[in-house]
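Title: Prediction job returns without error message
Component: structure pipeline
Severity: low
Priority: P3
Assignee: unassigned

Description:
Job completed but the reporter wants confirmation the result is attached to the right record. Sequence as submitted:
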Amino acid sequence: MSMTDIEKLRALLPHWLEHNASHADDYRAWSERARAAGADHVAEHLVAAVEKLAGVNRDLQGALEHLGGPDTAASHDHPYVQQRHDP
């Protein structure tokens, strides 16, 4: 059975949100390491990236809410999620 683009988005958006949150955690941890190494300017850039990513996630969450929330029938293991770069 073929998924519509809306069904694909309802499957992809939660994945993207989770993926971005994982990256934000990494950036935050590396900002602390950079600061500990005396690279305060680098740490500040990483903190700024975390803040921007939080804004991206707010927009993605808004899109998901306008679509009616995640498709509970769709799994993160759905094949389309693996093809997330395919338009």
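Comment from assignee: result matches the submitted record. The helical segments are 5-36, 40-66, 79-82.
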